[in-house]
Amino acid sequence: MKIEQLYSLYTQSYLVDTDTRNIRKGSIFFALKGANFNGNKFAKEALNSGASYAVIDEKEYQNNSNTILVDNVLETLQKLAKYHREQLRIPIISLTGSNGKTTTKELINCVLSKKYKTTATTGNLNNHIGVPLTLLTIQPTTEIGIIEMGANHLNEINFLCHIVKPNFGLITNFGKAHLEGFGSIEGVIKAKSELYNFLKETKETAFINSDDTEQLKQSKNINSVIFNNSKIKFIEVNPFVKVQFQNTNIQSKLIGKYNFNNISAAIAIGNYFKVPLKDIKDAIENYEPTNNRSQIINKGSLKIILDAYNANPSSMKAALENFSLLKDSQKVVILGDMFELGETSTKEHQQIADYANSLNFDKLILIGKAFSTIIAKNALTYTCFEDFETSNKDLNLKNTSLLIKGSRGMALERVLNLF
């Protein structure tokens, strides 16, 4: 079946599903494969659950006219998303970066949705599967699309750009993330800048933080909208970030000065798209982080900063620095391993442990195989969460501020069960 024909079927509902547990009536089910699953086996179940069609790539599962056999289901999904994008006549903003992508995307969406019908990436569905799925959620009524793009190897951002064809781009920052795939910070910069390269080739526009000298360097000769501290001013963080724009104070519910740039980007983009200032202010002030991203949780006299969604050396250092600046009497830090650092893992974990020690917290706890192999003076070290849990079944941290941060695979939100 040609993509044009498949697209005609798609436009009957504008619904695409990949999980038989969440089939929507009238959708097209794409039988994706993974290391431990084969979606082809569930095509019949998807149709019985309400899907109008099932796209498969193994002939043995083709049992009726509503089962569409293709050479490769994933490639077909990507081609369908690309074709859909080519039919759209709306601006799409794409963003990538080492840290803060999802928070920035959420802020931008909150701001722009004050004036426009927006469609944005759900959660962090930002890879070669998530991006096409996000594009295919864009309905005819959508006025602006906001697409987050992630990568852990070179050429991934470039590949996604040719599907999304963004009119606008934003790189939050360049940091030490996914070093196992990128090899070095230089590799990170090269990979993320693939977004800039695409915008340059297509003569589209980038939003640039002028306080980031590397971004200024990488974005030369690109149509740019510059945002900086001369127009958006940092006021304070106590513990939430407060900024000022056009003589109006905006009090966010985001902790950490590192969120200033994320807020600034949302303000700049909202202002560019002529969202009224009062709506920009309202959107940012009412946005609350969720899903273990810099959440503040109060349990009696214990204040917990839960930042257990992800971690890399850059975000870890920023979180520790911010925590050290809080004016609290008793501070305890629990850190979990940072993943995907490759050969640099030992060095990066050692540097984070040394940095945390230099900030003189009242207690430093390190959890994970990587942290357990380094020299960590003045720290309690555990090889895994279970060892930590056994030794601390009833944590008593009254009148304390607690920072919890680690990579997603560490699932450090489990610490909350010990209180």
Structure commentary:
With 419 residues, the chain is an alpha/beta fold. It has 3 domains: 3-70, 3-Layer(aba) Sandwich (Udp-n-acetylmuramoylalanyl-d-glutamate--2,6- Diaminopimelate Ligase, Chain: A, domain 1), CATH 3.40.1390.10; 88-286, UDP-N-acetylmuramoyl-L-alanine:D-glutamate ligase (3-Layer(aba) Sandwich); 295-418, Mur ligase, C-terminal domain (Protein-Tyrosine Phosphatase, Chain A, Alpha-Beta Complex), CATH 3.90.190. Helix content is 35%, strand content 22%. It has 16 helices and 21 strands. α10 (213-218) links the parallel β11 and β12. The longest helix has 15 residues, at 73-87. The chain starts with a helix and ends in a 14-residue tail after the last strand. The model has no long low-confidence stretch (mean pLDDT 92).
What proportion of the residues is helical, as a percent range? Answer: 25-40%
Flag low-confidence runs: none
- How much of the polypeptide forms β-strand, as a percent range? 15-25%
Q: How many β-strands, per DSSP?
A: 21
Q: Report the sheet with the most strands, covering strand number, pairing sense and barrel closure.
A: 6 strands, parallel
Q: What is the CATH superfamily label of the largest domain?
A: Mur-like, catalytic domain
Class by SSE composition: alpha/beta
According to CATH, what is the class of the largest domain?
Alpha Beta
Radius of gyration: 23 Å
The CATH topology of the largest domain turns out to be: UDP-N-acetylmuramoyl-L-alanine:D-glutamate ligase
CA-CA gap between termini: 57 Å
